[in-house]
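Our preliminary data section would be incomplete without showing what the modeling component actually yields. Below, a chain of 359 amino acids is followed by its predicted structure, encoded as tokens that our downstream tools consume directly.
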Amino acid sequence: MGMINLGAALRRARDIALSGGMVVIASIGAAQAADITRPPENIVYFVNGTLGDKSFFDSAERGVQRVKSELSVQTQTVEGGVDPTRWEGALTDLAEGGDYDTIVLGTYAMVPLVEKIAPQFPDIRFILFDGAVDYTKCKCGNVYSILFRQNEGAFLAGSLSARLTKAGIADIPAGSALGTVGAMQIPVIDDFLVGFEAGAKSVLPDVKVLKQYANSFSDPATGKEIAKAQFGDGASIVFQVAGATGQGVIEAAAEAGRYAIGVDSDQALIYQTSRPDTAKRIVTSVMKNVDNTVVRSITLLKDGKLPVGTAESLGLKEGAIGLADNQFTKAIVPAVVMAEVNKTKADIIDGKVSVPTAF
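Predicted structure:
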């Protein structure tokens, strides 16, 4: 039975159920559950926001485009906008339309909506990145959740930053503080910040790490003001974990003659053509390789190997998290320092270094 026909059948069954025919829905759901690992044909990426953040959402979009070109699967991207009150209706419409057999979406904010909507559409697979449904509380056997061990990458960024403060680097004074700007005080953001501070203090136990939240993922002006204040308080490097708000942090670093660390994507490469002087001020980026994980998920789904109905945690070992090491990084970071950071990375993967987490 095709997607559109099954979707229509499910809706008809729902109508019957309202008059007491519950067995009809159950039989359709059970029949489809056996085929939940069927190869995908039409995928939609639902953005609970807008593209253009030069970070998290854009990384996922690159993955979706790779799915289309590399795996020959039809894809569509729908931007839900920044008003959270519209997300449930938009997501429900995508599921009810019957045009897609797989919905890709992400962030903690979508977890309660997926827990509510996914059980209503057992014929559709939901691939949820950067969040996990509670499988003990919802009938979410059609949901695959991806969690990232972002604290591991942030730990490396913190250890790198602390090492740079004692490496004699221009515009990074010895003994200078470090800064962090988070979008909001939520676990996934705090996981970055906890990892970064732990990494810095693993190198310099007394290093001062400043921290402030912007309370927005889409306010570059506020991000810039916070970063300017931290540079004024003695920070030489500020790590931003703030989506589009973080663009303001990067601008502040360029204007102050200091440095920033990007997040989610290799942000120096994003600026290298349009604003090369800004790119030179991005030491590295803690990359949450959402694009890789999206491609990985759809590849496994095509091969019938995706563990739908479970959550997986992906980090340095799986290549889901990493540090950017581009030409700008090489121009700032001495090879001996990067070698030390890579040794720390190997120790984390081997379990010799335990990284604290906010979860």
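The CA atoms of residues 107 and 130 lie 5 Å apart. The two ends are 42 Å apart (CA to CA). Preliminary results of this kind motivate Aim 1 of the renewal.
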